[in-house]
Protein 1
Amino acid sequence: MPKPIDDTKTRGIHELYAEDPTQADELTWGREVDPVSRRGFLKKSSLLAMAAAVGGSIPFADKMPGGLIPAALAQSDEPFSIEGKEGLVVLNDRPLNAETPAHLLDDDVTPAKYMFVRNNGIPPELQSIDVESWTLEITGESCNNPTRFSIAELKGKFKHHTYQLTVECGGNGRAEFVPSASGNQWTTGAVACPRYTGVRLRDVLEACGIKDDAIYIGYYGADSHPSGDPNREAISRGVPMQKALEDESLIAWSMNGEDIPYQNGYPLRVVCGGWPGSVSGKWLTKIVVRNQKHDGNKMAAPSYSVPKHPVAPGTEVPKEDFITIHSMPIKSLVTFPKTGLTHDKNKPLEVRGHAWAGDLSVKEVQVSIDFGATWQKATLKDAPNRLAWHRFATEVQFPQPGYYEIWAKATDSDGSTQPMVVPGWNPKGYLNNACHRIAVQAV
Ligand SMILES: Nc1nc2c(c(=O)[nH]1)N[C@H]1C(S)=C(S)[C@@H](COP(=O)(O)O)O[C@H]1N2
Ligand SMILES: [Mo]
């Protein structure tokens, strides 16, 4: 047996076993330790440090094989990263969901690598995606001439349009609701505003003939339901005809002048900016024109729906009392500086970010450094086009050293302003547009 552990000395658990050769021989884990990786942690540091790292003493420490990576560290210490999306915080890996820290959203146009990923199911395998043979079918009971287009045909037959479009998950900000709502615990990073190129949904639908009774469209994608059941879609949502026929509603094959990233829907996606991201179907294979509200997976309440009337936190809401979310509410994000900055109090500090307002535009952004007691107006740029976010910027000056918070508050063109506190609790935790706050130390 190994000797009793003396955790006051700086020596690794592996060394404890090394004093007993019989025991050590059985320790295959121990021999696989890579000294330069975080696994080396166990070799080089004391049991005390390991206990601190896992958040408590380890009563059975003497039974732990040398080099064993405590599960607590294996899970948290080695951040899982998505190819091409380094820097995103993974909230769930089955299905994959990852958000972008606020300071990585500072670009006017969100780079592909910083666009969040929200998957409801299992994407089609990348190797199985063949752009040449990919087709989009336009059909449904309210489509006169159901047609199947290759991507080359879409590109050849219809005029190309490029718009910068805000895509925000309806559940962005969910993490702040109390009582908490199930689902990805998004903080602030399920939003992006890249530039999409494609053809107008309207042009394609009109070419196929829209019947007079058409009221809704629905999309289908090539991803599969997490259960693997081929008869269930991962998600199949849509928008009322009026939204589908807007100039900015696109069937896009390109993002920022390149192929759409695999996780964001390569090779083809719908983009309807300003509405919950869930209406912008990825890996697009089919659009149906409907004479009723589309009834695909996640169209029905409580998915992407909120109570018709305000409810007390924790209330159980009957299905018939929900309405489907349409335009997203006014919101803003401070993207510079990064929260936690230490700043020389004698110098002004530039503060900047973005504000967006669903189908509306942004009228004003204000910034506060005194917990909302006073506000200063930021400079606000026009959006490059409808449904794109606006850039805001200002300078703040700290009166004395100490801890400050920078708060940003936007107002939309209808006069609605972001709330200071988490707004209307709802069962699924949608539409949290509370003011974003970041921390700064002035020295
Ligand atoms: N086919 C398909 N389309 C989809 C989804 C999906 O899981 N499958 N997720 C939706 C949701 S809920 C959101 S918020 C956006 C996210 O887009 P992104 O992953 O490109 O950021 O895609 C939407 N379109
Ligand atoms: Mo979403």
Protein 2
Amino acid sequence: MASFLKRISIAIGFPWLRLVAETANEAADEVIIRDVAIIGGGSSGTYAAVRLHDSGKSVVVIEKEDVLGGHTQTYRDPTTNKTTDLGVVVFDNQQLVKDYLGRLDIPWKVAPPSLLGSDADAVYVDVHTGEVINHTAPDPGPGLAAYAAQLAKYPHLETGFFLPDPVPEDLVLPFGDFVAKYPNISSAVPTIFNFGQGLGDTLYQPTLYVLKLVSPDVVRDISIGWLTTANEANHEIYDKALALLGQDVLLRSRVISTDRSANDSVKVVVDTPSGNKTIQAKKLLVAIPQKLDNLIGFDLDANEKALFGQFVHTGYYTSLVRHTGLPDNLTVISISPDNPSQLPQLPGVYSISPTVIAGLFDIKYGSPTSLPDDFVKGEIIAFLRQLRQSGVATMDTRQEPEFVQFQAHVPFELTVSPGAIQSGFYKKLYALQGRRNTYYTGAAFQTHNSFMLWNYTEWHVLPLLLNDS
Ligand SMILES: *[C@@H]1O[C@H](CO)[C@@H](O)[C@H](O)[C@H]1NC(C)=O
Ligand SMILES: *[C@@H]1O[C@H](CO)[C@@H](O)[C@H](O)[C@H]1NC(C)=O
Ligand SMILES: *[C@@H]1O[C@H](CO)[C@@H](O)[C@H](O)[C@H]1NC(C)=O
Ligand SMILES: *[C@@H]1O[C@H](CO)[C@@H](O)[C@H](O)[C@H]1NC(C)=O
Ligand SMILES: *[C@@H]1O[C@H](CO)[C@@H](O)[C@H](O)[C@H]1NC(C)=O
Ligand SMILES: *[C@@H]1O[C@H](CO)[C@@H](O)[C@H](O)[C@H]1NC(C)=O
Ligand SMILES: *[C@@H]1O[C@H](CO)[C@@H](O)[C@H](O)[C@H]1NC(C)=O
């Protein structure tokens, strides 16, 4: 980014350099030759790019947004310069996380429990009416121990979709039925639901996806603490990675087409702010959600289409809102009193938490399917109005609630049906690695957890990309 800006100012200052810039523009059709072309500069794509760069491989990252980072978003308050993370707030407490942050010169710290909000002082409200409910959350301790005992039955799940063959019936039971079968998990269900935000209707999802997202690491870190960046500004990872990768990142760029018919290389045509570019790479890494409508222009074969076509997804929305009328230290948690474990009926607001920035609340919203952004925003505002009527939002404010940030994490949580899981979907999916010089990473191949994505990429994808044969 810095060098890009510098170039523009030089071009304006020195007419003879403008010529150089124009020549570069005319060369827009020139072929970019790289070892690896990476589609998507989110958590997995950026990690792969940094590691490949450090291993002496040439890379190019194609990213549609104007920054790297995907689900990781940090808001910096212009008045106080304080930051708050929404989206990715904490990381598993693992050496690989410390090593990666260290590589990028980013200090880390153990995340204080308050970073994730505390239930102790929370007000529980009905997700549909905003009415206060007299509710005491159960002590999740015994339930988490029972849940951890279930997790221990599937030690390979944590590192990927490495499923026993045949796939155990328990893994494809809707999670609600799984809990009914192992009722000693019950007291942990609200906790599992909250740490598994984005799963949509958690009790209806195949148990596999719950066990993947709310992993042994997560259960452990609930008690020992997570890691976060020392400044509580997780987007630093992506700012530093962008500075490191420099011109090897094409921002605001989209794939127009791919051609993977050659034996030893792939061709990718990319629409970039400086025109269409052709990339010729030995290998292609697809690090965006592998949904068919994200892969328009890709030369998918029947097998790839059949697999990716099975994914369905949820919607997860994060936002920062001011003028809520809520007292500054109040946490609001949604429930539905008539539901099992009183989990809130979605779509709806999961929770509202104060941030370090006075007057700014972090509001999370979940849906079993994706919804239009404006609809979600309208629902959040309507919920805040209900909280005024029900007397939860007591502060006098003449101003209407206002979004300071809003991010749709869509498509979120790619899943397939229980039948597909049982008939070997994930074996077939993983068998795609390396076919047609194409490799894959991202949450559909692992789960929505930065550490687990980095660790999967490190051990199961990088060795394939580094292998020159
Ligand atoms: C804001 O904080 C960052 C560190 O998080 C610091 O680098 C920057 O200089 C600060 N900006 C101002 C205007 O104080
Ligand atoms: C809330 O419920 C608890 C336990 O059921 C009860 O002791 C308490 O009085 C109730 N509080 C209100 C305000 O209704
Ligand atoms: C929970 O119940 C299962 C049987 O349903 C049992 O095997 C397990 O030991 C129990 N776990 C705990 C932590 O109580
Ligand atoms: C990281 O992945 C490797 C390979 O799958 C695995 O052996 C290791 O246990 C993983 N590390 C953690 C902490 O999950
Ligand atoms: C591709 O590789 C196969 C096996 O190595 C070889 O027989 C074939 O001629 C190659 N095709 C092209 C177009 O290079
Ligand atoms: C880029 O390629 C697309 C598809 O071939 C084409 O429609 C578009 O006009 C091209 N853009 C430029 C700036 O050449
Ligand atoms: C929240 O702030 C109000 C007013 O400053 C105070 O009376 C109340 O005790 C605080 N509540 C909590 C849970 O800290």
